[in-house]
Write a structure and sequence with these properties.
single chain, 193 residues, 2 domains, binds zinc ion
């Protein structure tokens, strides 16, 4: 999530939990965005829904934390990885290949693309529920998740349109679309456009 998306989420949460400020400071939004940089907004919104419906909240009445959101995101990633592995194994078996090798390969596949796809699907579902145009909303979410392509990364030095890599290696990031500083630069560019 970008700081702007964190603000959007806070505004929503404040409707459910009055202890959460509707408009937190820029510092708070940036700090949350840093911790949740790989979590798509749509997933965080689902995490909020899940949390405030949970038995844990009913019992403790604790405010939602970044940890609650990350835990929810991790469980979705685990499911996606398992699903990915099943699919890879099935394809491998159909093609007469070694299923185990395919599973091993799938484990190391970046789930970044899955995260993009998931965010778009969730946004579309949400739009339908809210009576908005799902295609238009999906396009907007997709554009904002791909916004990093428009700027270079000052952290790893990736050029425009080139994916971020772990510094000193050729390895692409597995979960985040790009490094937080690049996401923020891209978001600032979009906001100023
Ligand atoms: Zn980078």
């Amino acid at each position: 999530m970008t700081p702007a998306e964190v603000l959007e989420m806070f505004a929503e949460v404040s409707n459910i939990d009055p202890r959460v400020p509707a408009a937190p400071t820029r510092e708070i939004a940036t700090a949350w965005a840093r911790l949740l940089d790989d979590v798509p907004l749509a997933v965080a919104q689902d995490a909020v829904r899940d949390y405030y419906r949970s038995a844990r909240y009913a019992k403790t009445h604790d405010r939602i934390s970044t940890g609650d959101i990350v835990q929810f995101w991790e469980s979705i990633c685990d499911e996606a990885r398992a699903e990915n592995r099943r699919r890879m194994e099935l394809v491998a078996i159909q093609e007469g290949l070694d299923g185990r090798a395919a599973i091993e390969a799938a484990k190391h596949k970046p789930i970044r693309r899955f995260a993009d796809q998931f965010a778009v699907e969730q946004a579309r579902k949400r739009a339908r529920r809210d009576g908005l145009d799902p295609d238009e909303v999906a396009r907007e979410v997709s554009r904002s998740r791909q916004a990093w392509r428009e700027v270079p990364c000052s952290y790893c030095g990736a050029a425009v349109r080139q994916p971020c890599t772990v510094p000193g290696t050729q390895r692409e990031l597995r979960k985040s679309p790009a490094h937080p500083v690049r996401m923020q630069a891209a978001a600032a560019l979009r906001e100023s456009a």
